[in-house]
TrEMBL record:
Transmembrane intervals: 56-80, 86-107, 128-154, 166-186, 195-215, 235-253, 274-296, 316-341, 362-382, 388-407, 419-441
Domain Amino acid transporter transmembrane: 51-439
GO CC, any one term: membrane
Protein name in UniProt: Amino acid transporter transmembrane domain-containing protein
């Protein structure tokens, strides 16, 4: 598309209070908009994807291998009485907060393509760095969990053919290499378009296999225990960690980055994609969580597939599909880190596929996945990483920051009830984040003592 001439005077930012623009934007290149100016440049494409593509990406990515850990890390510590209400409470609030944040992609004629850019514009450079650190922790630890899930799936396959399966660390290296190759060949979020159909088929297939086996196992075993184990202190701390684990099931902490890839009207299209996630997508991963817990009760393994009955071929096929699906789904969660690294170190005046940029991208991806894989090998506690991601980073990113932005943008025009509502959200979820983070770190320290580093889980 031909770049329009940029008139600096037309786009000088206002010093007056913030205001959300009703008009959406039309992407022209990477900097100039029809009704607004991008807050910064990027090495990746923006404004090209239909909402259906992003909606499908959300559904498949949240129905990834992580759902195989949810019955153990969410339902076992909470059981039915606390687990089900908590799951739907946080789903409702996650949907609301993401819907709210989707309305802030344009403020005062300026379009934001990164969450941290919004925080920088509204609150200054300090909040920019805080947001970026929280996002990095979230995405990096989430990818560590993906590598662990993929490695466990490969080990489960190996265990079906050998009485002495190889150590988990071998399979973590294989997973890290597979992720690296995909991230190198599919450098941007928009480039995932041709892979989303494959991911959807893989997701649907292993979900069907999983449901069939879960129902069969659940009907054949009627004597199940749903009691919460442990001392009173353990029950409280484990329950708080479980609540923190519900957040990653519903939110990614990178909505603005996904929204930047959408065609105009970006706000409306992002909300359409969210409707898909919180209806069709949520129905699947919540159903698996509840049915998995129903089938095996408090004895549910950390990795649900370890409990599955059925023939060998079904287990091998299931874990193979899980491994392949994670290769695609993990990419969505790590793309913002790739985008930041590419924008910083690639030559923006050259094509993304120029020889120089290919070499640089190869080095950047290799370094990132080498560190990620090493961390997964040293601390192979997937459930603890899910808990820590939710408590430390996703609670502020999902619930606290959107309400802070609302108060800043609306200023004195907000009604008193709106001020009370959003300050209540800020206070409650900030407190929850602190308490849940402490609980998650406590669990990691405990498991590190029990299993030691480089444990063969």
């Amino acid at each position: 598309m031909e770049r329009k001439e940029f008139n600096e005077e037309r786009y000088i930012m206002k010093a007056s209070p913030f205001s959300i623009e009703a008009d959406e934007v039309d992407i022209i290149g990477v900097q100039i908009q029809e009704h607004g100016v991008l807050s910064s440049t990027t090495a990746h494409t923006t404004g090209l994807d239909p909402w259906q593509q992003v909606g499908l990406m959300l559904i498949t990515s949240f129905n990834c291998a992580y759902i195989l850990f949810y019955p153990s890390i969410i339902m076992v510590p909470l059981s039915w009485g606390w687990g089900v209400p908590s799951m739907f409470f946080f789903a409702l609030f996650s949907a609301y907060s993401n819907w709210l944040l989707a309305g802030f992609n344009i403020v005062d004629d300026q379009m934001f393509i990164r969450y941290r850019d919004i925080m920088d514009f509204a609150f200054g450079r300090t909040m920019y760095y805080i947001t970026w650190i929280l996002q990095f922790i979230n995405l990096f630890l989430a990818n560590t969990g993906f590598i662990l899930a993929a490695g466990i799936a490969l080990k489960e396959i190996n265990a079906e053919f050998s009485d002495s399966p190889l150590r988990l660390q071998y399979f973590l290296v294989i997973s890290g290499v597979a992720y690296f190759i995909f991230a190198f060949l599919v450098p941007t979020m928009s480039a995932m378009k041709s892979w989303l159909g494959i991911s959807a088929v893989l997701t649907l297939t292993y979900i069907i296999i999983l449901v069939v086996i879960l129902v069969k196992d659940g009907l054949s075993e009627r004597d199940r225990d749903y009691d919460i184990k442990g001392s009173k202190a353990d029950k409280v701390f484990h329950g708080l960690s479980a609540i923190a684990a519900i957040i990653p099931a519903n939110s990614s902490g990178m909505l603005t980055e996904m929204q930047s890839t959408l065609r105009k009207p970006a706000k409306k299209n992002m909300r359409r994609a969210l409707y898909l996630q919180f209806t069709l997508g949520l129905a699947v991963y919540y159903s698996i969580t509840l049915v998995g817990y129903w089938a095996y009760g408090s004895l549910t393994s950390g990795y649900l597939a370890s409990d599955l009955g059925g023939p060998k071929w079904a287990k091998v096929l299931f874990n193979s599909l899980v491994f392949l699906q994670t290769i695609v789904s993990q990419h969505m969660f790590l793309v913002p880190i790739h985008e930041a690294a590419d924008t910083k170190f690639l030559k923006l005046n050259e094509s993304l596929y120029s020889i120089d940029n290919i070499i640089r991208r190869f080095a950047l991806r290799a370094l990132l996945f080498a560190i990620n894989t090493l961390l997964a090998a040293v601390f192979p506690f997937a459930g603890d990483f899910v808990n820590l991601v939710g408590s430390m980073s996703l609670i502020p990113l999902t619930f606290v920051f959107p309400s802070l932005i609302f108060i800043k943008v609306k200023g004195k025009s907000a009604r008193t009830t709106q001020w009370i509502w959003h300050w209540a959200i800020i206070f409650f979820f900030s407190l929850l984040s602190i308490i849940a983070t402490f609980s998650s770190i406590r669990s990691i320290i405990h498991n590190a003592k029990v299993y030691s580093i480089f444990a063969d889980m």
